[in-house]
Amino acid sequence: MNSQDKIPTSKVARATQFVKAGVKVGGNYIKHYSKKILDPSLSKDELHKDNAADVYETLSNLKGSALKVAQMMSMDKNLLPRAYTDKFAMSQYSAPPLSSPLVIKTFRQYFGKSPSEMFDKFDLKAENAASIGQVHMAHKDGKKLAVKIQYPGVAESISSDLKMARPLAVQLLKLNDAEIDRYFKEVEERLLEESNYDLELKRSIEITNACAHIPDLFFPKYYPEYSSNRILTMDWLEGLHLKEFLATNPSQEVRNKIGQALWDFYDYQMHTLRMIHADPHPGNFLMTNDGRLGILDFGCIKVIPDDYYQNYFALMNPDTLEDDARIQKIFWDLDFLLKEDSAKEQAFFSDIFKQMIRLLGRPFDSHTFDFGAEGYVDEIYKFLDYIANMPELKNSNSARGSQHGLYVNRTYFGLYTILNDLKANIRTTKPDWVTPKHLKA
Amino acid sequence: MTKDKIKQAYVEYILEKGTQPESIYAFCKKLKIKEAAFYEEYTSFPQIESEVWKEYFLDTITSAQNEEVYGTYSVREKLLAFFYTWVEVLKQNRSYILKAYEGFQKPIYAKRNVQLSEFKIAFYDYINELVLEARETKEIEQRPIPQLMQRYPDLFWAKTLFILDFWINDTSKSFEKTDTMIEKSVNTAFDLLGHSPLDSLLDLGKFLFQNRRA
């Protein structure tokens, strides 16, 4: 780790690295997933398991929050060297799925009944394993249900897992202990929320009701009577995961329709609800051939604080970039610039951040945007690689960027990557105040 | 006064007073029965305790077997179901068990406690049958060392006491850590007793030994 006396000169770099990490977090496993599409040897796996389309599959040996941390810290090989991934895999979470007796016990504990008494049919073998729980299929009154069961002790282990991951993050991201704190706090909060199924149930119902009016979206119905602290029951949604969906060669029209639904969903959450489904990985979306999009898993929700919202979307409006005084203020507000920076560093970083914002804000600078157009998402990744390898940044060791950006960036990257995979050409609707003047004329 | 009622009164006494009755005489006086009537059923307090533990065990077996899927379980799952049900039964009696535990010689999985003797006998009947079944289903590998194979029931008994000890000291919410412990330790046990790399190694060693050059 860099010693203290180095900090004044190189602080700058660390920030950007973390911005990059945050940004890449969402994108990377999706990128990884798209690589899998191209790799035929992996597609065989896919045939065996329903859920192999899900990127978690590659990590199915990892469980609990260590997996989540690994994701948060980005699954990119550059950021998370193989040795560390292996270490994670060997941790206590490489557990087999819950045994049938434990599944039954969990039901008895929360409902006083076994699953076979509660449902007409309950499959004791899990359909798939996610990071903190597993999903079973059940039938009740002719309806097919998905029942998610959380591994015991997950909630208790989150804080200790993060402590374990911390030195790793410090090393990988070259941040010092004190600075990484606010990011870790942010991650810990989200993870604790994710392990709280009562909260997830409440939010799922809330958000799915609020978004019910958006065309071409469908959500599962949630069943409070069959849910508890560690069990969550919802409708079993039919549809294809992104990879399987693309394999059916959907028409451009259908792809646009789904892409539009996805954009509208996020547009509404971000600008109206101010809370977003912050886990846009392909496993959480189901697509149908008539152009509808099903949305799963409201475990990871980021509530957007007001001042962060104002600053972030002010940046997305290209007009703001013309107003230098304003943009400087925003950079300060969002912790992109730090008071220890020299004038030269400030200029340097402002320039980099502006380039980045121009790139990320591009879909906001027109009425429609073709995410299928060659190279937009690649360009983003290239730019991130480029800044990560800048010597000024490499040796910097301070954290830059608001902690709220961690999940917001991850969400937008996930969103862009899926739209890119869909090759969707969509109307990039946005609120009036984010719309640049030239589009209003 | 039936056997059950004496037992019931004894458990209540422990729960309320926190200690054993001073003597069988005092206990009988309180129950308004003749001491001789007591001796017709029990000869000592630890014997009552022993009966209580056995009852927990029998309740557990009945309740586990009532689960309709029990019959379709593998031996590994049967044992898991047994432990999960057992800790549920224990949970309903935790106050009494914590008191009774105070009178145990510790660590309980290493020392002999007469209070558990009836439970132990019943458990061995049960586990012997499961081990036989597991050998049939090949969940437990036949090993060429009979002395080791004969010890398997002892291992499971020690594991049972270990789980009890863990559960008594467990402070996690709804004893979730005990659940995790059961899951992991039973799986580990069967992974070790089942066909493992060691068996392949022994097999190879045997083959090489038999075919060694003179």
From TrEMBL, chain A:
Keywords: ATP-binding, Kinase, Nucleotide-binding, Transferase
InterPro entries: ABC1_dom, ADCK3_dom, Atypical_kinase_ADCK, Kinase-like_dom_sf, Prot_kinase_dom
Domain of life: Bacteria
Gene Ontology molecular functions: kinase activity
Protein name per Swiss-Prot or TrEMBL: ABC1 kinase family protein
Domain Protein kinase: 121-441
Keyword Transmembrane helix: no
Keyword match Lyase: no
Pfam families xrefs: ABC1 (PF03109)
CDD domains: ABC1_ADCK3
Similarity comment text for this entry: Belongs to the protein kinase superfamily. ADCK protein kinase family.
Automatic annotation (TrEMBL), chain B:
InterPro entries (alphabetical): Tet_transcr_reg_TetR-rel_C_sf, TetR_C_23
Domain Tetracyclin repressor-like C-terminal: start-end pairs: 78-208
A Pfam family matched in the record: TetR_C_23
Protein name in UniProt: TetR family transcriptional regulator C-terminal domain-containing protein
Organism: Emticicia soli
